[in-house]
Amino acid sequence: MAQVPAAKDALAPGKAHHGTAAPQRQESPLLKVEQLEVAYGEVQVIWGVDMEVYDRQVVALVGSNGAGKSTILKTIAGALKPKAGRLIFAGQDVTGQSAADAVRRGIVLVPEGRQLFAGMTVHENLLMGAYARRDGKRAIREDLDWVYSLFPELVRKRGQLAGTMSGGEQQMCAIGRGLMGRPRLLLLDELSLGLAPVVVDRLVEIVTRIHRERNLAILLVEQDLNVALAMAERGYVLETGRLVRAGTAEELLADETIRTAYLGI
Amino acid sequence: MSASQSSSFARRAAWAFVALVLAVAAVLPPFYLSGYWVRVITSLLMYGALASAINIMVGFAGYPALGNIAFFGVGAYTVAVLMVKYNVDFFVALLAAGVLAGLYAALLGRAVLRLRGAYFGIATIGINHATSEIVTNLDSLTGGGRGTIVPFYPGGIQEERMFFYFLMLGLMLLAVGTTWLISRSRLGYGLRALKADQEGASVMGVNTTRFKVIAWTVSAGLTGLVGGAYAYWLSFLEPPYVFDITMGVKTYIMAILGGAGTVVGPVLGAFTLELLSELIWGRFLEAHMLVLGIVVVLVVLFIPQGFMSLFAQLAATLKRRRTGEVRADG
Fold this sequence. Notes:
The complex is a heterodimer. By secondary structure, chain A is an alpha/beta fold. Helices cover 37% and strands 24% of the residues of chain A. Chain A starts with 5 loop residues before the first helix and ends with a helix. The relative contact order of chain A is 0.18. Chain B has a two-stranded antiparallel sheet with strand order 1-2. Chain B has helices at 2-27, 29-32, 35-61, 69-86, 90-112, 117-137, 139-142, 157-184, 186-196, 198-203, 208-234, 239-242, 245-258, 265-279, 288-302, 307-329; strands at residues 148-149, 236-237.
């Protein structure tokens, strides 16, 4: 199982940023969300949200149940259309793009609750992740080897139907499937949902490793502030559809109101 | 390595042998069997084709196209009108039947495929009724409720039997072949993904709307071809004959009975159900629907995945036993 050298691949999908040596904060953000408003029919749930994710950065979006975190991720991934506001990805206005277009641009969502294709095997699920790719079988094969090296437990289960695995294994398969799309921006929705703490620790470790080896940008949504800020360097706090705080992981963890509201201490 | 090679050779040889037997079994009947049995088998083949066609929608895309029989009617009337009113050659009319039925589905699909699950199923039943009404009211073109007589096959009785037997066999092979191609293609994987989870499929980059429309167009086109062949075979058409929702539901059950989403399952389901229907239910005309209902309940209870899942289970058991032996040897 040949592991793909991380350095070679770190910038591979990011043509626009290739060779940009400027410090991260001075380049333009990979993803810029401007005054985003989203509504389900008549019911508006997101109000004037501004966010930025820079290339090769891990950013967390935290907030309580029903705050609108998943809605924002789905909108970025093209699964929902915004009511107002703009989405800019790699310098290009992508507001209102379809989910298929988003995948082709390198925005890949690992949806909440896994949403694996239950009638397909683990292997087929992983290959589905590469569905929109056009860069040839060899590149896909290499990524497949890499995903299997990240999640050795999936190798033994590759022929098994995805719906029959444990929650933790399904989440690994879902992350693997997302990685197979070769994202520039990986959107992780509720990684820890319904999983045992020991499994969550393992996944946190792997996400950190993925970020290190591929240097991709990750925007993750979590209810669990500790889990989120263990992975992310920056975070946004969402409350009933509005951003109430933004800052580095240290700043947010030090914030008294956030500590009482989300950590119960 | 050599052991696995020789076993793969043996497997290939076994498949070739099975294929040969099937080919011979498919060609022989019209030469040796009585007219009655040739007619029965021709109708088995027709249902095999219809079940395969609906399976593309039901088994692959996961859309319960209960009213798919509408395209059967469209195909049948296309052949009838073209042959009666415009003296078109049968094969040209048949081709037109497939194309027209496919276009009809493509046109409707953009709107109707927004519906999911039972709502889609109900909408297709509505389409079937509406199309039937349209055909009935286009009196001058279709003969309306009085029906229309399609030109007879020009040839002797034996020749006619052969013709329709091999026509339906060809259409069934076309439907199964198309299914096989789909099952191995990007389209097939995309459809299976959207069947399992539509939103999940779309965030993987599957263009769900386009794929659903393509699947329905192919399914309808094949159904239309079979309808066209049926019109020529039956030689007398009335809207209730070919826009028959019972027939549509029957093909649906056949697909599920054999194994929705498999390549040959629907054909097995069609042969089983239609043969049962011919052998037993033909003698209990009144209880026909009752027995159909009981079969559906039994299938759902005991083999919800259809016949093909039984074969898969058997294969898995044999494999386990074989690898178990290998382990015992080593």
